[in-house]
Amino acid sequence: MGLTHPRHRRRPQTEGSANPLFGREQRTVARHELPRREMDPDTAYQIVHDELMLDGNARLNLATFVSTWAEPQAERLMAECADKNMIDKDEYPQTAELEVRCTAMLARLWHAPDAHQAVGCSTTGSSEAAMLAGLALKRRWQHARRAAGKSAERPNLVMGVNVQVCWEKFAAYFEVEARYVPMDGDRYHLSAQGAAELCDENTIGVIAVLGSTFDGSYEPVADIAQALDDLQQSSGWDIPLHVDAASGGMIAPFLDPDLPWDFRLPRVASINTSGHKYGLVMPGVGWALWRDAAALPEDLIFHVDYLGGDMPTFALNFSRPGAQVIAQYYNFLRLGFDGYRRVQQTCRDVATRLAGEIAKLGPFELITDGSELPVFAVRLREDIDNFSVFDVSAALREHGWLVPAYTFPANRTDLAALRIVVRNGFGHDLADLLLDDLRRVLPRLQTQQTPHRDADNAGGFAHGAETKNPQQPGRR
Questions:
Q1: Domain ranges in the chain?
Q2: What family does the Swiss-Prot or TrEMBL record give for this protein (predicted)?
């Protein structure tokens, strides 16, 4: 037998060096209990990484309003600040200072009478911001009622049935009667008359939505404010208006500057928006602003020292990363007014063009066309009875697209629609690819004898277009 050269002799192998990566994985991986022993970090990473491949592609998710793209510099800043606790303003005073700057910028953007007197804060998203605004409305109403020697036991909140589900949660969590104005015919959101008709002396406020999640349309904020002004003249009820501008608050100032919806209307007491939607930040950050200190009762505010001064805080969440606030300031600094205008105009241009092209395909009719929020909804023509919007959604999912299908709430539960949200990062090229896939699936759907899917087995998530719990508007 020949001798093996020393360079060719097999050397001892260690567990983590030569063993192939997937050979290190255990036969079974713990999923619902802690494993007994530690694991190689590369192996643990690969296991988690591979499972996440089963998620949808965020960039192809046309259901969500949440940002799915950011500049590398913003991502770098977020990584650098991931360990900073936003609530610890004494330890991270400069992060707190950037939060203050952001609220001041928003106060000016939304035409606060005195940006220095406007009160605001960051939140984990527009839902928390809405909760804070609702709490301020309730507490303000309670103080006024008690000062007048009246009962403060039965508060109610008036809004359209199209509001985001966070308002239903607010009413349930904080014991406020939710009064919903139903849809009617081709009106898919709150009307001024409908809002005024449901108000009474126990109404803590009215919610107007700048950008409905159902179809992307703006509610007539100025008309609602005028109706509440008229109601005060006739009844004496001074009912504040809150604007849920989760999406529209970062669209209208840049694309619809002459639209009166913000603090230019004296009736508007507070506004919320979502920084991680059209504010262009990765999730999650939101913002809540009040017209002035009088709109936010002092007993809801806590005071902390930072930079040798006083900083009022108002939040439901405590420990949370400061990274998203930093990214918001980066975007404000990086883009400025003109940069935001360009980004949002591109989104609207893509939305309106895509809506028009889909309308040309034949089976679809536009409910909205993307000319307010860069969001639009479509339905099938009334004579299409062999496939449903839920079939269309499922067929597009086969190509990786997530396009939600859902039914509208009372009184339009007969209406089923598809909704497409155009965000920064979804440009004309991707829109053309979506159109190509839609053209591919339609011939197959048109050969069906009957619809295969409906609202009960759609299997999708409506992303804010969920139907509210059925109840009679204006009743407990």
A1: 76-332, 338-446
A2: Belongs to the group II decarboxylase family.
